[in-house]
Structure formats: C-alpha cells, structure tokens
Design goal:
Blueprint: E1 3-7, E2 11-12, E3 16-23, E4 29-34, E5 37-38, E6 45-52, E7 58-65, E8 74-82, E9 85-93, H1 116-143
Antiparallel strand pairs: 1-3, 2-3, 3-7, 4-5, 4-8, 6-7, 8-9
Transmembrane segments: 119-140
Domain Tyrosine kinase receptor A transmembrane: 119-139
Protein name: NTRK1 factor
C-alpha cells in the first residue's frame, strides 16, 4: 500500500514548493486537498514529480506554486491511493501575510455621505467667490484710468 514518507512545509525556490516523497507498488495516484476541498491543479498550481528512480518505488515531487499570495495560505492535504490502499497527510501552507487591513473577498464599505451643512458651506463659498470676481471686474472696467494714448479699452 502507499506510504507518505515526507511532506514538508512550503519552501521558496524558483517556484514555491511543498516537497513530498511517497512510496507504493503499484505506483500510487496523487491528489491534493486545499482546506478540505479538492484542489484544482492548473497553470499556476500543479504537482511536479522531481525524481523517479527506475529501480525504486519511491516518488519525490513538489506541489509547485507560481507566485502564490495570501489567498493560497491554508491547509494542504496529500492523498495517495493505489489498489492496495491509501494514505493522507496534511501540512500548513504560509506564503505571505494579508497585505490588506480588510478581507478582499468582502465588499468595500461605502464612504459616508457629506453632511448638508458641509455642502451648504461649499455652495456659499463658491457663490461668494463668483460675486466677488464679478464686482472686481465691474470696478476695474468702470474706474480704471483712461489710457494715455487715447486708445479705448
């Protein structure tokens, strides 16, 4: 029956790797669980057999991660099975701390609306500025000195 010889915590290499070694004859199938559910392997997370010796039944490999983030933190369980039996072992994967002060899966809270008082003060200031500029233009136009050269403005 299959036996899990080694299952270590994730280590950073060129890609992150959860190293494992399994033994079994016939060669066991390898599956992974992430936090208790089946791990869908793909382009960024996949099982890679590093070394297979022809005169041995031991498989050495890695569960490889390409640029994992805090979302990949969790419990990884290695499941091995062949016709003679099965085995399972778990390890905690910690790749990086959560960079946010909130959970990115939760909706972002809405900003509080400005109070009516703040809005009315802003409108009053804008009206005062427009009135002041209008008065200044009228005063400059009416009370400006006449040109020395007789050119009308």
């Amino acid at each position: 029956p299959p036996v899990i010889l080694v299952l270590q915590e994730a280590i950073p290499q060129h890609l992150w790797c959860i190293p494992f070694s399994v033994d079994g004859n016939p060669v066991p199938s390898i599956r992974w669980l992430f936090n208790g559910t089946a791990l869908a392997e793909g382009r960024y997370i996949h099982t890679h057999i590093v070394e297979y010796e022809h005169n041995s039944t031991v498989l050495h490999g890695c569960l490889q991660f390409n640029r994992p983030t805090h979302v990949n933190n969790g419990n990884y369980t290695l499941l091995v099975r062949n016709p003679l039996g099965s085995a399972a072992r778990s390890v905690q994967g910690r790749f990086m701390e959560n960079p946010f002060s909130f959970s990115p899966e939760e909706p972002i809270p809405a900003e509080p609306r400005p109070r009516r008082h703040q809005i009315s003060v802003a409108v009053a200031l804008a009206m005062f500025a427009c009135l002041f500029l209008s008065v200044m233009l009228i005063v400059l136009n009416k009370c400006g000195r006449p040109s020395k050269f007789g050119i009308n403005r």
